[in-house]
Amino acid sequence: MGGSYRFPIGTPGQKWDEEERKAWYKQTTIKREYQKEVVPKIMALKERYDVGQYGALSYDVERFPLYAIKSRNWSENKPVVLVTGGVHGYETSGVHGALKFLETEAQRYISDFNILVAPCISPWGYETINRWNPDAIDPNRSFYADSPAEESVNLMKLISGLDQDVLVHIDLHETTDTDETEFRPALAARNGEDYVEGMVPDGFYTVGDTENPVPEFQKAVIDSVRQVTHIAPADDQGEIIGSPVVQDGVINYPMKKLGLCGGVTNCVYGTTTEVYPDSPKVTDDECNDAQVAAVVGGLNYVISQL
């Protein structure tokens, strides 16, 4: 169904200009603090990892430094694993799941891999619980040359500075009820389109790359997460969020074409996780644990292929 809900900013059928974008920005509010909830967890990892700043958001460089955490004893003889979280800042378990992986599991893999984690790519979005950045731009549609999103630009610079190719990239996300109640209606309004209501799947799923789907790798991720939380079923059309389910709990997107974070490298093994935190069947801790399980399942599979 569509057209029954009108986002309060903008004129139906007309794309936003600068005035509407500013109006959208003015109605955002700070709801939690990156410096209190995320940065201390990052700093606590310094005893076991190399923690460095790879940039800062110009909106407030003191408030929004960008951190990356690297495994020690980096070696050209080990393949590189990239874990990213918080591309959409509001997707909480992406951030805290990435950090929990470092806290609880990553040490088991440093003999096999060089591990690089960027846990909170969009800290302004984290604080305002937003999908976009202050310019009403989605960083997760902005991973391409001359990107307008500085969140995406900073991560691309970090990756381009590596002296090795990335073998594995796991990008941690969530699908939430607010995708349909807030963020997709805002997107339709921004683009001057009608909002067409979709269905939020109840459960975990992954998004593979249409150009490189690696189904056995996706299966390993799903099977690992299945030990922690339930997997999203297909809807009556055999789809999840409007895309065909190609295997249990898996859909595919053209990562590079859409400018997604999942396409930021030329990795052999890649997946984008999607946790559903609004399900009555899960807790916040289980959401974080599901993200950890996704990374663990993926890495265990890759080790079996090395």
Automatic annotation (TrEMBL):
GO biological process: proteolysis
Domain Peptidase M14, first and last residues per copy: 30-306
InterPro entries, per the entry: Peptidase_M14
Bilayer-crossing regions: none
GO molecular function: metallocarboxypeptidase activity; zinc ion binding
Gene3D superfamilies recorded: Zn peptidases
Any single Pfam family the record assigns to this protein: Peptidase_M14
Family: Belongs to the peptidase M14 family.
Protein known as: Peptidase
